[in-house]
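quick one, 192 residues, struct below
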Amino acid sequence: MKLRRCLIVLLLAALLAAGVCGIRWGGEMLDRALHPQEYSEYVEYYADKYQLDPLLLYSFICTESGFDPSAQSSVDARGLMQITDETFQWIKSKIAPTEELTFGDLYDPEINVRFGSYYLAVILERYDQDIATAAAAYHSGWGTVDQLLTQEKYTDDGRTLTVFPYEQMDLYVKKIRRNYESYQRLYGTLAA
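---
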């Protein structure tokens, strides 16, 4: 009788342990599905070229388009990294002035990641590698962030934001941070 109870307790403990492992494994699989590493050949190449953490680049793509190369926003931002025409023209003047590229080419994943990576690298450099401030600028524009940096209530040092006063900006910065933390947890820190 005691042996039978002991076996039942051991069996239940083993089933419980298997269930916990299964839930943990299933949760990680779901998290990886929500945070994929699609277009890795482009992400890894351009992250290296522009000295970015590829996990940060994945975080921006995940946040911006959910890895949909045909994504188009209400303001006509296009592709994986949701680049507007004005931003496309500026980036093109910097990295591809002689190439016959059009705004429509941003639906091509390689072109989009190439342009978006360059832009993100420039923004990070502009804002002292501060991811939150760079994310705010990527979302709301340099002009908006630069104006906020002139107001002490939003910054401690005049170079990075500590407060994100607009609801959409604040939500975007939180999404980038959350996605970046998830990518780091799931795939390790692969800082460039």
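The domain at 37-187 is CATH 1.10.530.10 (Lysozyme).
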